[in-house]
Amino acid sequence: MGEEKWDLQEIKRLKKKLFIQNNLGMLLVFALLWFFVEVAAVSATIVLGVLCAILWLFVVNILFTLLTGKVIGTKAMQRVQTFRIERHGKKQWKIKASIGLFLFLALTIGLTVLVVGSDIGSATLEFPNDSFGFIGAWLGMNIGEIHRIRKISREISQESSETQEHGSSESV
């Protein structure tokens, strides 16, 4: 495998950029959820049906990435994905991606069966109470991504301290 020397500062910058983009996307979904529940008074079936469609798109995207190794998305997403694959090794990355695919698939199939198989149209949605799961998932996503960005920061500081040590020992 052609191991490339990665610029960790660039990867950190790209991960921060994706972090902001993901949070803006989640904020948009949250605002739409609020609008559909509070203002438009859309039924639970429609809201959960749209959620099912979004989750199925995620499953297809993960499956495509797993099968081809290519990412559907921006250049930053593609660059970070390439970094992950080379960093962890293709086999380890495939295992992690397969686990993620399985979890998303289980969640999506479960929600689809719930929406199609049961009568949830009569259920009322109350915005603050029914959004706690979404907020929890959002918070978990942010904590995980902040942890991964900090891990790269620690690697950068480790590299710079090793470089300084080698530089000072060579000058002696």
Describe this structure in words.
The protein is mainly alpha-helical. It has one domain (8-158). The chain has helices at residues 8-39, 44-68, 75-88, 90-117, 127-130, 132-171. It starts with 7 loop residues before the first helix and ends with a helix. 4% of the residues are buried.
What is the compact description of this entry?
By secondary structure, the protein is an all-alpha fold. 83% of the residues lie in helices and 0% in strands.
Order of helices and strands: HHHHHH
Rg calc: 21 Å
- How many domains make up the 3D coordinates? 1
Task: Please give the largest β-sheet.
Answer: none
Question: Strand percentage, roughly?
Answer: under 5%
Work out the helix count.
Answer: 6
- Span between N and C termini? 37 Å
Q: Indicate the overall shape.
A: elongated
Helix percent reads over 70%
The chain-level structural class is mainly alpha
Extract low-pLDDT stretches. none
Number of strands: 0
Please tell me the overall pLDDT. Answer: 85
